Amino acid sequence: MLPATPPPVLKLYFSRMCPYVHRVTTTLHLLGILTSLAEGMHSSSPLAHVDLIHIDLANKPEWFKRDINPKGTVPVLIIPNGNGIGGNSVTLADSDDTTAYLLQVYAGNTRTALLRPQDALVRYTQAVPLLDTWNDEYVPAFYALLKEQDKAKVPAAQERLVAAVRAVEAKLAPASEGAFALGGGELTVVDILCGGFLARLPVLKHYRGFDVPVAECARFEAWRKAVVGHPSVQGTLAPVDELVVAYKRLAGEPTV
C-alpha cells in the first residue's frame, strides 16, 4: 500500500495588526487549519498545514519586498506545487481572493463558502451589495477617522463613519433572521471579510472617541458583537492594547 499523501504546507506571511490578514487567519481557523498565531507550523488538520512568517509592517524587511511581494503588503499566501496548477507554487497576495480560494478548496459545499449554485441568488442580491457598501463607504470612512488628527475635523469624520454604519446596516439581513450579515447562526464569507475592521473599532474608541450609536444602529451592533465574538475571529485577534500601540503610526496622538 502506498503511503498517504501528506497534506500541503501553506506558507502565510502575515501581521496580527492588519484587518486584511485577519480575513485569512479567521478563515484558516474556521477551517481547522490554523490553531495559533505564533510563528511556525500549527495544525493537526488533514487538509493542510500552515507555516506562519510574521512581517513587521512598521519595519518591513527588504527581502520581503524583493522576494515575496513587491507591493510590500500582507497577507501573502504561498501554495506549494500550485495545488495541481502546473506543478509550480502559486502566490496569492489579495485578501479577498485568498479567502475565497481557501473556502472553495477546503470548506466543501457549505453555506460558509457561499459557493453552491443554490447560493447564487443570496450572493448577488445580498452579499455583493453589502460588500460593495462596506468597501466603498465603511472602510474609507474608518481610515479617514483614524487618520484625522485635527480635533476640529474629528466630528465630521465621525459623522461620515456613522453614515457608513447606517448604510451597511440597511444591507444586513433582518435581526429576526439571525445575528450574522446574511441571517442565520453561521459565519459567512461576508462576516469574515468585514470582521477584521469590526474587531478594530476599539482602536477608534481610543484615538478618536468613536462609539457605534447603539440606539440608532442596534442591528449593526448586534452583528458586530456576533462576528467579533465568534471563536475564529477571537482566536486570531491581537489583544486590543497591542492594536492600539500598532495603530499609533497611522493615528498619531488621541484627540479625546
UniProtKB/TrEMBL annotation:
**Which residue range or ranges hold the GST N-terminal domain?**
8-110
Q: Which molecular-function annotation in GO is an example for this chain?
A: transferase activity
| One GO CC annotation | cytoplasm
Q: Which residues form the GST C-terminal domain?
A: 120-254
| PROSITE patterns tied to this protein | GST_CTER (PS50405), GST_NTER (PS50404)
Q: Does the keyword Transferase apply?
A: yes
Q: Which UniProt keywords apply?
A: Transferase
Give the domain of life.
Eukaryota
Tell me the Pfam families matching this sequence. GST_N_2
Q: Does the keyword Cell wall biogenesis/degradation apply?
A: no
* UniProt-recorded name of the protein: Glutathione S-transferase
What is the source species?
Answer: Catenaria anguillulae PL171
